[in-house]
Amino acid sequence: xxxxxxxxxxxxxxxxxxxxxxxxxxxxxxxxxxxxxxxxxxxxxxxxxxxxxxxxxxxxxxxxxxxxxxxxxxxxxxxxxxxxxxxxxxxxxxxxxxxxxxxxxxxxxxxxxxxxxxxxxxxxxxxxxxx
Length: 131
Fold this sequence. Notes:
This protein is mainly α. Helix content is about 50%, strand content about 0%. Helix 2 (about 50-60) packs across helix 3. The chain is flat, with a radius of gyration of 34 Å.
């Protein structure tokens, strides 16, 4: 019987072939790039802005001030900023008191976990209801 089998593909655009919009956009971009290159001359830089900054700060012929400025501008795109970590402590309490309270709570939780039977609740934590 004619027809395609399950999973079989007949006809149509091959996988990875760009559609007409993509082809038209890429052609327009190539034409614009050619016009810009022609206007700027053969010595125009062909990379993106980040590549230009990298080229500047790696070029030992550039003055140090230019290299430093280029490195500063490129740095956020190469390394993530470190997040600040803050500790909020109430002014009325001392840091040692806060640490002690956290340690005592952790100790209480460990004791409750040890006292709990396998897969059950901690001993003495069950409610007794009158029925």
